[in-house]
Amino acid sequence: MTANRSSVAALIPCYREERHIRDVAVRAKAQLDTVLVVDDGSDDRTSDEARAAGVEVITHERNAGKGAAIKTGLRALTSRADIAWVLILDGDGQHLPEEIPHFLAAANETGGEMIVGNRMGDTHAMPLVRKLTNLTMSRLISLFAGQEIPDSQCGFRMFLRELAAAFLDVPTSGFDFESEMLVLAARRGVRVGTAAVSTVYGDEVSKIHPVRDTLRFLKLLVRMRSA
Predict the structure, then answer these.
(1) What is the pLDDT, as a whole number, of residue 191?
(2) Which residue ranges form the domains of the chain, and what is each CATH number?
(3) How far, CA to CA in Å, does 26 sit from each of 99, 180, 215?
């Protein structure tokens, strides 16, 4: 099905984003008819700010991880017959809603079932540590996926509803969930396409825990290797 503002739903998983979520949700709503925010157990005004944007909001009682928030959103959206695509973007302002048309165009022009944002074409604004981390992880994920995925760590992505249903079976629930999505899609025969997006860093604080999430990523690689 053609990707357009009525057939694509935006899913915004977030945690403690009261400063940014209303603005991101309003801008996403300007691009797509359906915008769903999943507040992953925030203890601030994240849910209130999202509702003030006039979008749908689902709230977890407790923090369960970004992957869990995405799954909650996928369960809600895949039950709707009018939704053919799901587009995920972060609620901290790192992903520009105005670049959503890049994903629609890429899907419609290539027939791709999954389109992932690619920030690596212009990395001057990307901190060196993140750049090196993205390059390393992307090479590893590309190896397991059997195809080049230049920016596997970009959470700005869009995929068909049928793939969304398959992602619900992914066992991980943290940040590693996004990497496993790519490998699962590739092993199902999906050619992962890309859409050029901007590198944006502001006053947001990374929610990735260096030690914990690195260990999770290593465990993910071991599991994918044996799968």
Answers:
(1) 95
(2) 8-226 (3.90.550.10)
(3) 14, 30, 36
